[in-house]
Amino acid sequence: MSTEALIKATALNRYYGKYHAVKDVHLTIQKGEVLGLLGPNGAGKSSTMQMLTGNLSPSSGEIIINGVSLIDEPETAKSSIGYLPEQPPVYRDMTPREYLAYCAALHDVAKAQRKAVVDEAMDRCGLHAVPDQLIGNLSKGYQQRVGIAQAILHKPDVVILDEPTVGLDPIQIRQIRELIRELGNDHSVILSTHILPEVQAVCDRVQIIHQGQTVFADSFSAMAHSERASELIVSFSQSIDKNKLDSIDGVASVEALENNQFLLKGAKNESQQINPADIFKLAVANNWELTELTPKTETLEQIFMNLVHTDSDVHFGSDPDSYPVAKAEADAVWTNYE
């Protein structure tokens, strides 16, 4: 994977009236990377995506697309982006072939090349079975495919997909996920979703947004390495001296569980993390029978729930501040009216 940043967003903020919907969000995506933008409904994902695609102006912040400022040179910057909003922007009274030819003209694809460009996009998105059927008569899954085809038609460097599998059946979801993985071979992809398995299935890296702010960002490979190194569960067939486990290099704390099982937590400093070989040596030296030595892993679901699931997330009451999204929209309308 290249270290070249195709999108670099710095300190993005977005207000709707007085409501601060997106708060100082930073985001980068490298060439050949699939980034999962994860968060509960109302977290600010769609507003962030709309700012990244130039469909919504940030209240403050900077967005650089393939080296070009989206704010200063929007047309040039947008030429590097393909975008599928949550509702596919398709014309139901057109066929996929007609619609994609129309999109190719909008992207200034040379007339002589349009047929080849449309055929390639249709082939990549599995539309060869329905090229001349009305889009309005197609299943939701095929309509999503048409939406993705228009996003990749002009061969953009970055493809941005907002909730691409919402409303699809399990078979359609699997097909769209496979397509997204394939797109990651030739494009950088940002996938916005509130569905955790979606991120785990197709993404290289995850960024969690909650209440308009980034609360977690890491790659799955780094998460796995950190989990293996920082916490270990060990079990023995007999009672042991817990204090001796404390003496192992890199062990910050030892928690006794049950049935001679212990949770060893490592130091945050990577150079001082637990070496499993030291546990084996200690067991042999003390004639302990070691029956288990496994990393204690924290799943993405656990991370997500720990970060975003609080009782204060949902309010139902008479106070208008209990409805932040509705209040934001009302404030925005009132501001425009004034």
Automatic annotation (TrEMBL):
- Tell me the InterPro entries matching this sequence: AAA+_ATPase, ABC_transporter-like_ATP-bd, P-loop_NTPase
The leader peptide range reads none
Per the database record, which ranges form the ABC transporter domain? 7-236
Annotated membrane-spanning segments are: none
List the molecular function annotations (GO) for this entry. ATP binding; ATP hydrolysis activity
The alphabetized UniProt keywords are: ATP-binding, Nucleotide-binding, Transport
A Pfam family cross-referenced in the UniProt record is: ABC_tran
Question: What's the protein here called?
Answer: ABC-2 type transport system ATP-binding protein
UniProt source species = Cocleimonas flava
